Amino acid sequence: MIIGVPKEIKNNENRVGLTPAGVAELRKHNHTVYVQATAGIGSGFEDAEYEQAGALILPTIAEVYKQAEMIVKVKEPIQEEYNLIKEGQLLFTYFHFASGEELTHAMIERKAVCLAYETVELPNRALPLLIPMSEVAGRMAPQEGAKYLEKPLKGRGILLGGVPGVKPANVLVLGGGIVGTQAAKVAAGLGAQVTIMDISLNRLRELDDFMPKNVITQYSNEYNIREAIKTTDLVVGAVLIPGAKAPHLITRDMLKTMRPGTVLVDVAVDQGGCIETCKPTTHENPTFIIDDIVHYCVANMPGAVPYTSTLALTNATLPYAVKLANLGWQEACRRDAALRLGLNVVNGEVVYQGVADAWNLPMVDVATVLETAHA
Predict the structure, then answer these.
(1) In angstroms, how far is CA 23 from the centroid of its own chain?
(2) Dist CA 8 CA 180 (whole Å)
(3) According to the model, what pLDDT value does residue 110 have?
(4) Which of 196, 306, 316, 370 is most buried, taking the most CB atoms under 10 A from its CB?
(5) What sign for the dihedral angle of Cα 362, 366, 371, 372?
(6) Are 286 and 260 in contact (CB under 8 A)?
């Protein structure tokens, strides 16, 4: 198969879809890999390293799309890329269609095969291609929150871990999954008083067993959230419904009950956000203020630490990329149920329920698409 790795052009996105090691692995299976010039620079990988691994370097993004049968990326294509996508071309990347109506319609129109990292799902409901970036974003959330709690950045002016004789900050983490767990660990490690909420009592029991003593668990409901935010300094939104929009757990009216300078970090922003007033921001302009509450809503948080993020991501995605290249997407998805769940849009048809529901679109059963797809 011919594989293309374009340079990411989303604002301040420095990750890259394949490392040189990933190229070398695909070359072992006799696949051709085209990498756009300087695609890996932001993550610390020079063009020469890709060439040594067996990649062919192309000067422009248009040439990469033109040559490739499968595009391996990190973030969803943006408007400048739409017209470069060919009918039947496989795009293997994060899409988050449920928060991007324009993107959804564009991929339907281009008749691309869109296999989304975030909906590849194992039988135990784990999301193997989302986990590494969830771990990074979760660990970053308290780090970013701590920074924006500083007074010059319009925060409350409170040190997350406090000092002897002065209470530490109160941190509320909404969601006890991968992001929430990592966020709670880091916030606790910095010395904050942390409350983590979830709707699963089993998960709360698990968290209670291994979290440090400065982390308490609480059942998540509207009443408990409303009470907690009155004395919270930092809120981390970490709620995920695979492939669908995140629910709004903090609504606009709740902001007025918070103390001025409270910081909200919504890690769920790329799925629509679990804070109603959230809207996607960039690393260039990461925050905005509503009702004296600081909102940090960067949609590609791991892009700020691209070396770590790229290695973590490709550790997870490479085995699937090799399978797709070796077998073709049709056969790979027939054989691998987890990979099959990654299909969101195929040849102009929506094949994932969460995407269809988000934009009120008709859905075709993925099994039907695979039966009729030609290798």
Answers:
(1) 23
(2) 27
(3) 97
(4) 196
(5) positive
(6) no
Query: What pLDDT is attached to residue 12?
Result: 86
pLDDT score, position 374: 58
Residue in the structure block whose two tokens are 């007033």: 277
Cα 104 to Cα 26, 71, 79, 97, 130, distances in angstroms: 29, 17, 11, 6, 20
Give CA–CA dist 297/286, Å, rounded.
6
Nearest partner of 216 among 226, 289, 230, 232, judged by Cα? 232
Residues 6+ apart with CB under 8 A from 199: 219, 220, 221
The pLDDT value recorded for residue 99 is: 85
E-strand stretches of 56-110: 56-58, 70-72, 90-93
With H, G, I as helix, E, B as strand and everything else as coil, classify residue 310.
Answer: helix
Residue the block writes with tokens 């691994």 = 53
User: What was the pLDDT predicted at 331?
Assistant: 96
Q: Catalogue the active-site residues.
A: 96, 270
Q: Alpha carbon of 199 to those of 211, 267, 327, 338: distances in Å?
A: 17, 18, 40, 25
- Report the pLDDT value the prediction gives residue 242, as an integer from 0 to 100: 74
Angstrom distance (rounded) from CA 345 to CA 355: 9
- Angle, helices 131-148/306-327, rounded to nearest 10 degrees: 160
Those residues of the chain that have pLDDT short of 50 are: 375
How crowded is residue 281: how many other Cβ atoms within 10 Å of its Cβ?
Answer: 18
CA separation (Å) from 181 to 10, 80, 103?
A: 28, 36, 31
Return the pLDDT at 271.
81
Question: How many CA atoms does the CB half-sphere of 108 hold within 13 Å?
Answer: 18
